[in-house]
Amino acid sequence: MVQRTEDTFGQKYPRQAQQFLAFPLPGVLPEGHVLVLNTRPYSLSTFVLTQLSAEAHGLVAQEVLTELEMYALVALLESYPQYCPYEVLQAAITDEVVNHARATVNQAIEHRTLDHLMKPIRNILSRCRAKLHTFGIDIYSIHAAGYILTPLRCPPQDS
């Protein structure tokens, strides 16, 4: 469950758990739309991400996420409109504090093993990317820095 956050010193502490986190994502979602993440498991350890519009019967789309996908996606959503650095994603999926994850990433850069370190994150983001396409959102890689949410260049067509 999303109950982790960090203070300015990089120390994790529990925050009051909110069942629903809302992200309007201006510039990515249409005006009046919002992504809502239910942080309580739907079944076992799956979580529901929903796009809502301000219109009556405003359900636009839904996707089911795994726990690791949810943690990575929350890091991206909370970083928006800026990019989400590698160390924040590393911390999100490993439960490390960001300062420790930053040291891990820097060490991987020094030892030229960043590609190996980032492989699990890339795999998770690949699955997230496919699910976010439902909402007209893409994940763009910023070389040697992190990832950012962007509008999908060719949004899905209604059938």
List the keywords:
single chain, 9 strands, 159 residues, disordered N terminus, four-stranded antiparallel β-sheet
Description:
There is one protein chain. This protein is α+β, with helices and mostly antiparallel strands. It is built from four helices and nine strands. A hairpin with a 6-residue loop joins strand 5 and strand 6. Helix 1 packs across helix 4 and helix 3 packs across helix 4. The protein is globular and about 55 Å long. The N terminus is likely disordered.
How are the elements arranged and paired?
Blueprint (H helix, E strand, L loop, with lengths): L3 E3 L5 E3 L5 E4 L10 E10 L2 E7 L6 E8 H13 L4 E2 H9 L3 H13 L3 H19 L4 E6 L3 E6 L8
Antiparallel strand pairs: 1-2, 3-4, 4-5, 5-6, 7-9, 8-9
Helix pairs in contact: 1-2, 1-4, 2-3, 3-4
Helix content: 25-40%
By CATH, the topology is Arc Repressor Mutant, subunit A
Give the CATH class.
Mainly Alpha
Q: Give the structural class.
A: alpha+beta
Summarize model confidence as the mean pLDDT: 84
Separation, N- and C-terminal Cα atoms: 35 Å
Radius of gyration: 16 Å
Count the beta strands: 9
Shape type: globular
- Counted up, domains total 1
CATH architecture term: Orthogonal Bundle
Helical region count?
4
Going across the biggest sheet, name each strand in turn.
3-4-5-6
The largest pleated sheet is described as: 4 strands, antiparallel
Please identify which CATH superfamily we are dealing with.
Answer: Winged helix-like DNA-binding domain superfamily/Winged helix DNA-binding domain
